[in-house]
Design goal:
Elements lengths: L13 E7 L7 H11 L4 E7 L5 H10 L4 E4 L13 E2 L1 H6 L4 E7 L5 E3 L10 E6 L2 H13 L7 E5 L3 H13 L3 E5 L3 H14 L4 E4 L6 E6 L23 E6 L8 H8 L3 E4 L1 H16 L5 H13 L5
Parallel strand pairs: 1-2, 1-3, 4-7, 8-9, 8-11, 9-10, 11-12, 12-13
Antiparallel strand pairs: 3-5, 5-6, 5-7
The structure holds 2'-monophosphoadenosine-5'-diphosphate (ATR).
2'-monophosphoadenosine-5'-diphosphate binds next to helix 5.
């Protein structure tokens, strides 16, 4: 059943949210609320502007107020790691948290997601997951139509999103990874970690000395109109790549993607990654299969403002 108007909030409405700084660009509320409506769930999803120094406080507040889950975006994905009571293997493996599930302990001592429990008088803990990493791989294949396995990849950014992407791409069997980050020490440390964990993958820092199949922007550059490009085009022109993927999805055509299209590259923005990471988070919170086409349509309407078919 689909509602044409949002459900009203009741005293029993279950709550989820995304925390970020900035946050006003986020399309996550449209996507998640459309999914709640489609399944007739009395749940709502909010977007909260949370400064990095307030992240711990905000997570504790959400836990105390009975929230079911939280998504984390820029710049919280690495900061949240030590704040979690427990880490799922996905967060351990990919080294960043983008989804928090609040879990409650029942009388038998088992931890159950708050959103799937009716007994909410026990202790509550935070459990961190990473749903970004698999979502990126799926979106690269579907939206950029380039298989990361065996590919030479230039990855821009070594924050939370960049770190998860680099480790997951290495696990997927990328041939060569070049890591570029403003804070070079973070790229160096990530390259070192990949060399130790994935010895079959060639990993370097700095710009490639050859053509690549894929360039991925995992920095936050492109969110603001005044942002510089995330790549130094004088030293690495976009025509050296087959495809360019930008995790930024608003604006839908980022300056990087615009230039990439002009250079003849195939391109994709981060809508597909947002969709798949969101669907996985939604399932973790509700325990139900996410209505993926409803979520995709909600995102497209929000991001393209109904200008595409
Ligand atoms: P997230 O958790 O969403 O990945 P993050 O960890 O703050 O957020 O990472 C943001 C990324 O964008 C980082 O790679 C960051 O570079 P630094 O590691 O040097 O901070 C990059 N970034 C943000 N603002 C930038 C800017 N003005 N110039 C270049 N890179 C920038």
């Amino acid at each position: 059943m689909t509602f044409s108007v949002p459900r009203s909030v009741t005293a029993q409405t279950r709550l989820c949210a995304v925390f970020g700084d900035p946050i006003r660009h986020s399309a996550s509320p449209s996507m998640h609320n459309a999914a709640f409506d489609a399944l007739n769930l009395d749940w709502r999803y909010l977007a909260c502007h949370v400064l990095p120094e307030k992240l711990d406080e905000a997570l504790k507040g959400a836990r105390s107020m009975g929230f079911c889950g939280v998504n984390l975006t820029v710049p919280h994905k690495l900061l949240a790691l030590p704040m979690m009571d427990s880490l799922d293997l996905s967060a351990q493996d990919w080294g960043a948290v983008n989804t928090v599930v609040f879990e409650t302990q029942n009388k038998e001592g088992l931890w159950t997601p708050v959103g799937q429990s009716n007994a909410l008088d026990g202790p509550v803990r935070t459990r961190g997951f990473n749903t970004d990493a698999d979502a990126l791989i799926q979106s690269l294949r579907e939206d950029l139509t380039i298989d990361p396995r065996g590919a030479r990849i230039l990855l821009l950014g070594a924050g939370g999103a960049g770190r998860a992407a680099a480790l997951r791409l290495a696990d997927e069997g990328a041939l060569v990874l070049w890591l570029v980050n403003r804070t070079t020490a973070k790229a160096d440390a990530l390259a070192q970690e990949i060399a130790e964990r994935f010895p079959a993958v060639e990993v370097r820092t700095g710009l490639p000395d050859t053509d690549v199949e894929i360039i991925i922007n995992a920095t936050s550059l492109g969110l603001k109109a005044s942002d510089p490009l995330p790549l130094d085009l004088a030293n690495y022109p976009l025509c050296r790549a087959d495809g360019v993927y930008d995790m930024v999805y608003r604006p839908s055509l980022t300056p990087l993607l615009d230039l990439a299209q002009r250079a003849g590259c195939c391109t994709a923005n981060g809508l597909g990654m947002l969709l798949y990471q969101g669907a996985a988070a939604w399932t973790l919170w509700t325990g139900q299969i996410a209505p993926i086409e409803t979520m995709r349509q909600a995102l497209r309407s929000e991001i393209y403002r109904n200008t595409i078919a």
